[in-house]
Amino acid sequence: MTSRRINPIEALANARHEFGEHGGVNMSIEASTTFTVMEANTMPAVFQGEHGPDQGGCYLYGRHFNPTVYALGKQLAALEGSESAYCTASGLGAISSAVLQMCNSGDHIVSSDTIYGGTFALFHDYFPAKMGIHTTFVDMSDLDAVDRAFGPQTRVLYIETMSNPTLRVADIPALAEIANKHGAQLIVDNTFCPLMVSPLSLGADVVVHSLTKYINGASDSIAGAICGSEEFIGSLMDLHLGSLMLLGPTMDPRIASNISMRIPHLGLRMIEHSRRALYFSQKLESMGLDVSYPGLESHRDHGLLKRIGNEPYGAGGIFTIDVGSAELGNKLIDTLQNKCNFGFMAVSLGFFDTLLSCSASSTSSEMSDEDLEKAGINPGLVRIALGYTGTLEQRWEQMERALALTGIIGS
Ligand SMILES: *Cc1c(COP(=O)(O)O)cnc(C)c1O
Question: Model-level pTM?
């Protein structure tokens, strides 16, 4: 196992020295889509990427490169400990671009069988239909099955650090070793675990993020990022074969500026999400409810997360309760929102307020009933993406009241 444990908060503090145009304490927003070349004869070199801003030249065009988006990319590179990073218009834009940069038509992907619904549809339906890229889905906790799924055309092993909504943790060091042995690249979607887990220090090749969730933290922007080597990030901008350049999931610089101002308090937010989720899951478990949270000793991957996780950030803000039936699950989230003022019935996560959903009929509805059952996503499974507004005592009282009102606990 690798021992190089970066401290992402220290790296971020060093990366955030981007002054505004007039000496502002925040970086300026570069809104221009096109940039002046000072001498006509430098235009060809700028266009070939031989005379960019890092070589004393200038920027070319906003889809290729924007300084504000680039500055946010540097913050994300610091967060994940990568050489480089670039941001995209959405998490799915980051995922599709990163995977397509590594796969040509006829190539093969080995993927976790419990991944974000949109990613599942992309691999399961879109890639084979449009590009002849096929995916084998495997349970990532069965390392032998993962190993057996590789073939001569396998280019990518694709996983999520923590699966949704089953909250299984991927053994990134072991999976990196398997990918490496087969000459494939390991891509990790770290959306659920920013700061908590640093996949690149554990052997992953590329990290993708939906910034829409914890990193932005306010449920007001859709955005994504790709973190990896300088060579890989550069290849995404290639004028002939670059996925970001040619598919064009370009981030708006105004969004980049907004998100860059949420990153300095990401650490504080993650610690509070985790502290509250641990408190709630411990209390609910002690009442005899069927709770799943990787911070609980009863969780199958508690030890694994302790081993690969970064200490102060805990086990994240998401836990699930299985209340036995879809009817009771719906009744619970309805009561929490409409009678107890506890959160919102909405998909997504990483918000400052609590978001409540029944996974089987919402974020995992791309899966068949059989696949849902196999993955352990029962109809009565309620996902709680816990926020940090209000006091902990007030929120717990609201939760207890909802459990009593729905008859899940005796009142
Ligand atoms: C939301 C999410 C995505 C997709 O991100 P968008 O920003 O909505 O495109 C991908 N992976 C995970 C784990 C997510 O939660």
Answer: 0.95
